Amino acid sequence: MVQVRIDVYLKLMGIFRTRSVAGKACKGGFVSIDGKAVKSSLSVQNGDMLNIVKPDGSELTVEVLEIPTGKQVSRKDRQDYCRIVGMEV
Q1: 6-88 topology per CATH
Q2: What secondary structure letter does DSSP report for 37?
Q3: Whole-number Cα distances in Å, 58 to 34, 39, 45, 66, 69
Q4: Domains of the chain: which residue ranges?
Q5: How far apart are CA 1 and CA 62, in angstroms?
Q6: Per-residue model confidence as pLDDT tens digits over 43-68
Q7: In this model, does residue 42 exceed pLDDT 90?
Q8: Which of 1, 13, 54, 73 suits 19 as a labelling partner, its CA being 20 to 30 A distant?
Q9: Rounded to an integer, what distance in angstroms lies between the CA atom of residue 67 and that of residue 71?
């Protein structure tokens, strides 16, 4: 089973531009799973529901469909790995 840190996953899915920014969002409490704030080192699992508050104040709910195995994911393939469930501006 492949394990990927949540900050790396958020970067690969294009939710944050860099791993550093994703890590800071986790550290600041802006990323949660099931209502609990998570550290950037947490490994994501298939079926996890991620709640994210972006710097512009918008809220995003993302379901993890699959864990990527490579170091990069193309934009057209991102839909195979995550699904946006809800988005509030």
Answers
A1: 3.10.290
A2: E
A3: 18, 20, 24, 24, 29
A4: 6-88
A5: 21
A6: 999 999 999 998 888 999 999 999 99
A7: yes
A8: 1
A9: 11
